[in-house]
Amino acid sequence: MSQLRRCSVAIKAVNEQLLRLTMESIAKYLANQGFENVRIADKVADFYVRRIERNVVTGIVADEIRGFGIVIRNGRPEIVGDDYAQRLRISEFKRLFENFYTATAMSEALKAMGYQTSATVLPKMEIAVRGVKGIGY
Fold this sequence. Notes:
The protein is an alpha+beta fold.
């Protein structure tokens, strides 16, 4: 059944800049996974485009994804979207979002301390962040 669903995430302190960086990283990841026309969006719709969520801080859409967005309710981020007849389920997107947000926050913190960072997506959508500091790296 088509309907916009809300899904809470395990992130308590939200940073809108990190949200946007996270969505950009997820967009690149999904494009590399074969999703077509992946782009950042500020609204998401249900299957029939009857209900549109417009209070989206940042979101993502693609040819195979009508959209998953992040809204802030009571100071906490929530995922909103309709995964009916979509290639990516909301539970998969939630795991992607939580892992990418955590990796992005860690990477930005390491960069602020002068480290060069790189991230690798591992099986099961886990992300390894590597920070290197010093001459010759």
